[in-house]
Specification:
The complex is a heterodimer of chains A (about 650) and B (about 180). Chain A has about 650 residues and is of the alpha+beta class. Chain A has 25 helices and 20 strands. Chain A is about 40% helix and about 15% strand. Chain A is globular. Chain A starts with 7 loop residues before the first strand and ends in a 10-residue tail after the last helix. Chain B folds into two domains: about 10-140, no CATH class; about 150-175, no CATH class. In chain B, the strands form three sheets. In chain B, strands 1-7 form a two-stranded antiparallel ribbon. Classes of the chains: A alpha+beta (about 650), B alpha+beta (about 180). The interface of A and B includes residues 294, 296, 302, 303 and 309 of A. Strand 13 (about 210) of chain A pairs antiparallel with strand 2 (about 40) of chain B, so a sheet runs across the interface.
Chain lengths: ~650, ~180
């Protein structure tokens, strides 16, 4: 018997209309765990670098994490992986909600989509019965609307639906896949789904998920619940509200937005508005929030309530979470009411809440600077907020200038020319980033921004405080009860970190410390993404309930795989390296590993080079960021070095 | 049936639908607890609590499995509460032919909440950290009906489905094997 996982994938070929249930190899679970790990293995094996994102040979993989569907609190992530049309690298985006557990109960760990359907279809997975159904009546329908229609026509109110909106259908490079209160948004995976002619995947499952050593597993779950209670009652002092409490950033619950509105940039990631947050704004925004927010809601099997149902008078209800609360508002230099109104339309269209506002603000900046003109934007309204709605409509329909903008700021700037690339200033690896512009280089963040392949800072950071605490006694207080550290040395790193003087940014944390911290932070995210754990209870947080010391126990008692910390760290390193290998094979090199030029005002080229050198070395990559033969061998990834040698990426005789 | 006068503890689970966030943790732990051996599997479709959940209409109703009913109601009513429309079934505890809830998914046998016999408190209550489910206990003097065996309830439902004769035939046949 297989435990925690089902042991079956669903292979769907949309070109031939073929559906197969395929048993998976338990040895792969041992090596790559599940979720992101096994997704990476499949992409490496089956999607060579010659395959374009919009080729029928590109795969779109929906995977539940290894522990999804078990009683582990908050383990509900769907990990969607494919080749991104925007970055041309491996995209992996996660969504919470209810979809992954339902897939497990239906009897599958993954749905692997290949080919292209000539007509728009949806996939209906009802336990053993799986069918491809006509979706022509859903063409152009909103993502939430689609889910409602499908549940009604199937008479299956309990089915879970992951759907694209018009943006996905029209292959907008930042189209999302929406699933009720959650979405997988980054990297344009919705565009790949649209390209395949797949409007939605609908799942209903009523089978069991088995646990290898039940009593032990339940005890671990209960410990986590107890610790969640403790953390809820004892928020971490001295950090901003969204880091003090567990969960995805509690944007739906909190009213105080001083930190975001005054530290993040407005417009096209340009303007910092110190002193913006005053009593008047606070009163107005609080009223807006209370008016539209019906209820705080959770993902499957989690008490944290990170999302909310939003009903703006006169508009259909939708669900929201996290920072999309402010991205539209701030890009448009507007208010919260506008943010909620436009997010409703954007959610139905199915677009990423980070990239989309930035693309629109970028377009308007180009217009104000005469690079885009009235002839490019015929009919552009004069009202600022109306302009955003106007642009959004054009982008998702790929109408006029919208067709250019729909490829994101990097590609749009290339096509527009006339110096437009100066305005596409906030990308890493061709992908729009959070609107942050800071002063002093932070070595930890520099490394994460540069080398992260999730290409989204919130999906790499966590565990270690973002900034030093000014008082030593507060630091001492913080390291007490910090049992989550993989090694005691991290406590010392933090204790000695000062706001000013010798032990301050940018030379402290030192190069070696910064490498250690980044390696730990990244590893925890990669573990979450294989197990299906929410980062909001794990990798994103300081002192989370899940950590490197209890994860191995969850895996061994849950999945029945013999696991300890060392083995788990090695597995995580293995599939993390495989993700890199996929991207290296697609041409990514050291030259691509850099933050936006203006992310920090104060830069230190020499220090930065040292940081990258040291980090590559720690990771077992050569000076160009390519995993070495030796490190690949150590991770049992010899098949990767063979391929690298065949392609001339590594040399046969090379010592590296 | 024997009727006894004695003290008994009445356990009430208070359900506050305004606090429910729709997470279904209650379904998860209920189905895990009632699996054999305990916690060896879980499957919300086997849970004895079900959350009727329709987020876009802000409907969240945790309902517990009650008595088995052989026939569905002849007519159904609709309730409007706070401007939200609920189907009568949303509040009904019956394991009844009209729906899949409160039945074993493969055999169709009816399920009933037993307040997690043997545990300090029902586990759904323990796992609902947001207090949508809370437990209240009070002592009361009253008549206690002898509890019907789970097996008996199960057999009765099978008899309704297939007819008593067929069940007896089958049992005879099986016992000869
Ligand atoms: S912590 Fe928040 S985002 Fe994470 S699973 Fe729970 S409700 Fe969902
Ligand atoms: S555990 Fe509580 S909050 Fe979650 S669905 Fe059940 S009753 Fe609602």
């Amino acid at each position: 018997m297989r435990y925690a996982e089902t042991g079956f994938n669903l292979e769907v070929d949309l070109t031939r209309g073929n559906i197969e249930r395929v048993a998976t190899d338990p040895a792969d679970t041992e090596l790559y765990l599940g979720g992101l790990g096994t997704n990476a293995k499949i992409l490496w094996d089956r999607v060579p670098p010659e395959v374009e994102p919009f080729s029928p040979d590109n795969l779109l993989i929906f995977s539940a994490g290894l522990l999804c569907g078990t009683p582990a609190t908050g383990c509900n992530r769907t990990i969607v992986s494919t080749i991104s049309p925007q970055t041309l690298l491996m995209a992996f985006s996660m969504m919470g909600g209810f979809w992954a557990p339902e897939l497990k109960y239906a009897g599958y760990d993954k749905v692997i989509i290949r080919g292209k359907s000539p007509d728009l279809v949806y996939l209906w997975i009802n336990n053993d019965k799986v069918e491809i159904r006509d979706a022509s009546h859903l063409k152009g329908k909103g993502a939430i609307e689609t889910a409602e229609i499908i549940k009604k026509e199937l008479n299956e109110p309990k089915a879970q639906v992951a759907a694209i909106g018009l943006a996905g259908e029209n292959r907008v490079y930042f189209a999302s896949i929406e699933q009720g209160r959650s979405s997988a948004s980054r990297g344009g995976i919705g565009a790949v789904m649209g390209d395949k002619g797949l409007k939605a995947i609908v799942v209903r499952g009523t089978k069991d998920i088995n646990i290898a050593r039940p009593e032990e597993y339940l005890e671990l779950c209960n410990e986590v619940l107890e610790y969640i209670k403790f953390r809820e009652e004892n928020p971490i002092p001295g950090v901003i509200p969204i880091l003090a409490r567990l969960g995805s950033p509690q944007e739906m619950a909190i009213h105080d937005e001083k930190w975001h509105t005054e530290n993040f940039m407005w417009g096209n990631s340009r303007l910092r508005r110190k002193g913006f947050w005053n009593e008047e704004v606070e009163k107005e925004w609080t009223e807006t929030m209370e008016r539209v927010r019906t209820r705080l809601i959770s993902c499957y099997n989690c008490p944290l309530k990170c999302g909310a149902t939003i009903s703006v008078p006169g508009l259909p209800t939708y669900m929201m979470k996290c920072f999309s609360k402010l991205t539209y508002t701030m890009a448009a230099m507007s208010d919260l009411d506008f943010g909620f109104r436009i997010a409703q339309r954007a959610t139905e269209y199915g677009v990423d809440g980070y990239s989309t506002p930035q693309v629109m603000a970028f377009a308007l900046e180009l217009y104000e600077n005469g690079i885009l003109t009235d002839s490019d934007m015929p009919g552009l309204p004069s009202d600022n907020e109306e302009r955003f709605f106007w642009l959004l409509d054009r982008i998702v329909r790929r109408e006029g200038i919208g067709d250019v903008l729909a490829n994101g700021t990097y590609w749009a700037a290339k096509e527009i020319g006339k110096g437009a690339d100066e305005y596409a200033h906030n990308n890493i690896k061709k992908h729009e980033q959070l609107p942050l512009k800071l002063s002093m280089l932070n070595p930890v963040y520099f490394l994460m921004y540069s080398t992260g392949e999730k290409i989204n800072i919130t999906q790499i950071e966590g565990q270690f405080p973002q900034a030093p605490f000014p008082e030593r006694k507060d630091r001492e207080e913080f390291v007490k009860g910090w049992f989550q550290v993989p090694d005691e040395k991290f406590k010392q790193y933090f204790l000695d970190w000062e706001l000013r003087g010798e032990n301050s940014l940018p030379y402290y944390p030192t190069v070696d410390m910064a490498c250690d911290i980044v390696d730990w932070q990244e590893m925890m995210h990669y573990i979450d993404d294989a197990l299906g754990m929410c980062a909001g209870l794990s990798s994103f947080h300081l002192k989370p309930p899940y950590h490197i010391h209890n994860f191995p126990k969850f895996i061994s008692s849950g999945a029945g795989i013999d696991m300890d910390e060392e083995k788990l760290m090695k597995a995580a390193r293995r599939y993390r390296t495989l993700v890199r290998a996929i991207n290296i094979r697609r041409g990514m090199r050291r030259k691509d590993e850099k933050p936006p030029e203006n992310h920090w005002k104060k830069r230190f080229p020499e220090l930065e080079a040292k940081l990258i050198d040291a980090y590559y070395k720690l990771k077992g990559w050569n000076n160009d960021g390519i995993p070495t033969r030796e490190s690949l061998h150590e991770l049992s990834l010899d098949y990767v070095s063979e391929d690298f040698i065949k392609r001339g990426i590594l040399k046969d005789d090379e010592e590296n | 049936m024997t009727v006894d006068k004695k003290k008994k503890t009445i356990k009430t689970i208070n359900i506050n639908v305004d606090l429910c966030n729709g997470c279904r943790a209650c379904e998860v732990i209920c189905s895990a607890f009632h699996s054999e051996p305990k916690y060896s599997s879980n499957n919300p479709a086997r849970s004895r609590i079900r959350v009727i959940r329709d987020p876009l209409r802000d409907i969240y109703v945790p309902v517990y499995a009650g008595e088995y009913s052989e026939a569905e109601c002849a007519g159904r009513d609709k309730y409007t509460i706070d401007g939200k429309e609920y189907d009568e079934c949303s509040f009904c505890r019956a394991s009844c032919p009209s729906r899949d809830d409160f039945k074993e998914p493969d055999s169709g046998l009816p399920l009933k909440c037993d307040m997690c016999e043997g545990e300090e408190e029902p586990l759904c209550v323990k796992w609902c950290l947001v207090d949508a489910l809370t437990l209240e206990e009070r002592e009361e003097e009253g008549e206690e009906e002898e509890k019907r065996e789970e097996l008996e309830i199960g057999l009765e439902s099978l008899a309704d489905k297939y007819g008593l004769d067929k069940i007896i035939d089958t049992i005879n046949r099986m016992s000869k094997k």
